[in-house]
Specification:
Oligomer: heterodimer
Order of helices and strands of chain B: EEEHEEHH
Number of strands of chain A: 21
Largest sheet of chain B: 5 strands, antiparallel
CATH topology of the largest domain in chain A: Sulfite Reductase Hemoprotein, domain 1
Strand content of chain B: 15-25%
Strand order of the largest sheet of chain B: 3-2-1-4-5
Number of domains of chain A: 4
Largest interface: A-B, 33 and 25 residues
CATH class of the largest domain in chain A: Alpha Beta
Distance between the termini of chain B: 39 Å
Radius of gyration of chain B: 13 Å
């Protein structure tokens, strides 16, 4: 993985010293709250409901064992012994004290980490496919591209005060595991159909939040050497023409929607033509230097199938169940990628204790070339485990409560922190996730239902990606009570789709029954081998809506429904 | 100039401690982390005094995000915010009863 050079190192250290001085000046009154707030946000420090929250960048979700151990140390020394992985592959600590943050930033700098650009109207942490370098359907590892963009966008002098935040995701695979179509810019590495040259499909203007859109293809094929100049042209057009009069209409998706894809493309191409590409694009030597950090690890030559693995599977049904759900095929014979689910039944999605962090770091060090990935699904991946070692890893995970076999299933729920932590939230998310997780805990039933993504947000900003959940849940406030809107048919993959509303919002206590009814419609209507989202596509929302609205309407007549 | 509409009374004043971020409650002449120690403003004069304190202590770099919250008062005289958002703020995360005010203070418990 990428290692800081002397410039990166000095820059991050200077940032820590700067922030230390800024905190001091805030406390002695030389900086007002209004002056200090953007400074703390630029260092990932928010003020939330109960405390400050510190968001730490995990570039494209890749962590070394020593970095995760450092996060565990920070969790124990300065927080409450746990952290939370987010849908941007970052980590958040929920109980940071302002007085401690400069020291925390210093500890992060010790392991080449920081919180820069995890907040504010700038280009945020670049995300990527969590199976980068592993998946058989991958044309090219997206992380060198993501790292190049990280370097280009870090403290970019022109793009530090954009109209609004800006999110970029990259995939190099056929199947989109990075939700690139719902990002401000999504990049898909592909091969030119005629020349065979690799380049990028450039998708712009996707996004969730209060106005969800699937992104539009602005360039079908961008030669790779032109990447940074083209990105510069896109962000420059946005910076100049994006709306600054209304925060809710300031994202690039609104600009693309308002002027249309054609006109947006024209403006970008015009800007791109005027730019001095060679001065912006990265030197091929630098690109090669970055790419070298992501060279495949020193795999052993192994048989495609491990007899030990097969024997353990046969002898231990619980292990086989876990492996069926959580193990992903690796393109190198004899290896596997495994997902450690942070969705234990009844627990908060994405939370991980310091003890668990240390165990995962140890497992990554011993079994997976010292590297792990955070997924936008709020899980953790060990990307290169020998099949023969899977059983030993599973046993360790079992001891730590980390062996929940539910990846991609109905209890693998994305949920934002919601009103249990977040100052912006309008309702809670975590208890809804917990209730659903308990409702569908039965393993055989989960397997019977098959792949089904539930995503929950506690406000319209959609950090929990509810719009692209096969079933989406949005928590709002209605008449002083938490109220939940249900959407159906969203899809985060290459078939990206925004879910449609099923009907009026419902009370928290009614959510599990409502979701169960939707699942029942699917089970009754599905054809052989058809997964949930495909049934929804085939039969449409009406059969689901009918059941949902009929029951909701009946319930609304019950007087106790009005009581929280 | 018209004043922004004040929350209905009775009300308490809560804020976040600047240095620690903890939720703090005005006791009338200082700040406490214990919600049971919050001074309850039952009339406009008392609410005015709380708002004056909010302004002064914000200016003195003691607290941030200070505002009045309307409360109901239970039989023991303990104030509970009427809105669920502020109730969570005086309790802690509902999924982690081991954290936040609810873990520290006997009087802070989910209603």
């Amino acid at each position: 993985m990428y290692r800081y050079d002397q410039f990166d190192e000095r820059f991050v250290r200077e940032r820590v010293a700067q922030f230390r001085a800024q905190v001091k000046r805030r406390l002695d009154g030389s900086l007002s709250d209004d002056e200090f707030k953007p400074l703390r946000l630029m260092n990932g420090l928010y003020l939330q409901l109960h405390a400050y929250m510190l968001r730490i960048a995990v570039p494209y979700g890749t962590l070394a064992s020593r970095q995760l151990r450092q996060l565990a140390l920070i969790a124990d020394r300065y927080d409450r012994g746990y952290g939370h992985f987010t849908t941007r592959q970052n980590m958040q600590f929920n109980w940071a004290k302002l007085r401690d943050v400069p020291d925390i930033l210093g500890l992060l700098a010790d392991v080449e980490m920081h919180c820069i650009q995890t907040s504010g109207n700038c280009i945020r942490n670049v995300t990527a496919d969590h199976f980068a370098g592993v998946a058989a359907d991958e044309l090219e590892d997206p992380r060198p591209t993501a790292e190049l963009i990280r370097q280009w966008s870090s403290l970019h002098p022109e793009f530090s005060f954009l109209p609004r935040k800006f999110k970029i995701a990259v995939t190099g695979a056929e199947h989109d595991r990075a939700a690139v179509k719902v990002h401000d810019i999504g990049l898909r590495i592909l091969r030119h159909p005629d020349t065979g040259e690799t380049g990028y499909e450039v998708i712009v203007g996707g996004g969730l939040g209060r106005t969800p859109y699937v992104g539009k293809v602005v360039r079908e094929f961008l030669p790779r050497r032109d990447l940074l100049a083209y990105l510069e042209a896109i962000v420059r057009v946005y910076n100049a023409d994006g709306r600054r009069d209304n925060k809710f209409k300031a994202r690039i998706k609104i600009l693309v929607h308002e002027i249309g894809t054609e006109e947006f493309r024209r403006r970008v191409e015009e800007e791109f033509a005027q730019l001095d590409g060679p001065t912006i694009n990265a030197d091929p030597e630098e690109v090669a230097r970055i790419a070298a950090y992501f060279a495949p690890p020193a795999y052993e030559k192994l048989p495609a199938k491990s007899n030990a693995y097969e024997a353990h599977r046969a002898a231990n049904p619980a292990f086989a169940t876990w492996a069926d759900a959580n193990v992903f095929p690796h393109r190198v014979p004899g290896y596997a990628a495994l997902t450690i689910s942070l969705k234990a039944i009844g627990e908060a999605p994405g939370d991980i204790s310091s003890e668990q962090m240390r165990l995962v770091a140890d497992l990554a060090e011993k079994y997976s070339f010292d590297e792990l990935r955070v997924t936008h699904m709020q899980n953790v991946v060990l990307a290169h485990v020998r099949q023969a070692d899977l059983f030993a890893v599973w046993q360790k995970l079992c001891e730590a409560g980390l062996a929940t076999p539910n990846v991609g299933l109905i209890t693998d729920i994305i949920a934002c922190p919601g009103l249990d932590y977040c100052a912006l939230a309008t309702a809670r998310s975590i208890p809804i996730a917990q209730a659903l997780s308990k409702r569908f805990a039965d393993q055989a039933r989960q397997k019977e239902i098959g792949p089904l993504g539930i995503k929950i947000s506690g406000c319209i900003n959609a950090c929990g990606h509810h719009h692209i959940g096969n079933i989406g849940i949005l928590g709002l406030e209605k008449n002083g009570v938490e109220n939940y809107q249900i959407t159906l048919g969203g899809d985060a993959t290459e078939n990206a789709a925004i879910g449609g509303h099923l009907g009026p919002g419902i009370d928290a206590k009614d959510v599990p029954d409502a979701i169960e009814r939707l699942v029942d419609v699917y089970l009754a209507q599905r054809e052989d081998g058809e997964i949930f989202i495909d049934t929804v596509r085939r039969i449409g929302v009406t059969p689901f809506k009918e059941v949902f609205v009929a029951k909701t309407h009946a319930k609304s007549k019950e007087p106790e429904n009005a009581v929280a | 100039m018209a004043q922004p509409k004040r929350v209905p009374l009775p009300a308490i004043l809560l804020a976040n401690d600047l240095l620690d971020g903890d939720v703090v409650f005005s006791t009338g002449n200082g700040w406490s982390r214990n919600p049971a120690e919050a001074l309850i403003a039952r009339d406009d004069a008392a609410a005015d005094r709380l708002e004056a304190q909010a302004k002064a202590d914000f200016a003195a770099q003691l607290v941030v995000d200070a505002y009045l919250v309307d409360v109901s008062i239970d039989a023991a005289g303990v104030p509970t915010p009427r809105h669920f958002r502020e109730r969570f703020k005086t309790l802690g995360p509902s999924n982690r009863p081991d954290l936040g005010k609810q873990a520290q203070y006997a009087s802070a418990h989910p209603h």
